């Protein structure tokens, strides 16, 4: 599965800031200078729900909604939060 994160990963660590400050990801503390690969693995392990397009119009034939761009972001964010919570609590 492609994601924005994996598409932008290169040999250079531009995707994660080089800082002495702690980097926090969902309650876990990392050192960006020493744990770069660990941070990347953690980010790749998270669920990523993306925009969808080209689906059957929502609401029947009279609808023009064939994408969730612009209105689906809150649903998508809520789904990701719920899914991550279920993974954290049950896996």
UniProtKB/TrEMBL annotation:
The keyword Magnesium does not apply. Residues 39-91 form the Peptidase C54 catalytic domain. It is an enzyme of class 3 (hydrolase). It catalyses: [protein]-C-terminal L-amino acid-glycyl-phosphatidylethanolamide + H2O = [protein]-C-terminal L-amino acid-glycine + a 1,2-diacyl-sn-glycero-3-phosphoethanolamine. One of its GO terms (cellular component) is cytoplasm. Its main location: cytoplasm. Its EC number is 3.4.22.-. InterPro entries: Papain-like_cys_pep_sf, Peptidase_C54, Peptidase_C54_cat. Keywords: Autophagy, Cytoplasm, Hydrolase, Protease, Protein transport, Thiol protease, Transport. GO terms for biological process: aggrephagy; autophagosome assembly; mitophagy; piecemeal microautophagy of the nucleus; protein processing; protein transport. It is found in: Cytoplasm. The keyword Cytoplasm applies. It holds the Pfam family Peptidase_C54. Belongs to the peptidase C54 family. Cysteine protease that plays a key role in autophagy by mediating both proteolytic activation and delipidation of ATG8 family proteins. This is Cysteine protease. The lineage of its organism: Eukaryota, Metazoa, Ecdysozoa, Arthropoda, Hexapoda.
């Amino acid at each position: 599965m492609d994601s924005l994160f994996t598409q932008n990963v290169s040999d250079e660590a531009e995707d994660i800031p080089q800082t002495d400050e702690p980097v926090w990801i969902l309650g876990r503390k990392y050192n960006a200078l020493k744990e770069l690969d660990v941070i990347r693995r953690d980010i790749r392990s998270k669920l990523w729900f993306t925009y969808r397009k080209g689906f059957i119009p929502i609401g029947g034939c009279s609808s023009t909604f064939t994408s969730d761009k612009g209105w689906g972001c809150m649903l998508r964010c809520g789904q990701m939060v719920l899914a991550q919570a279920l993974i954290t609590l049950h896996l």
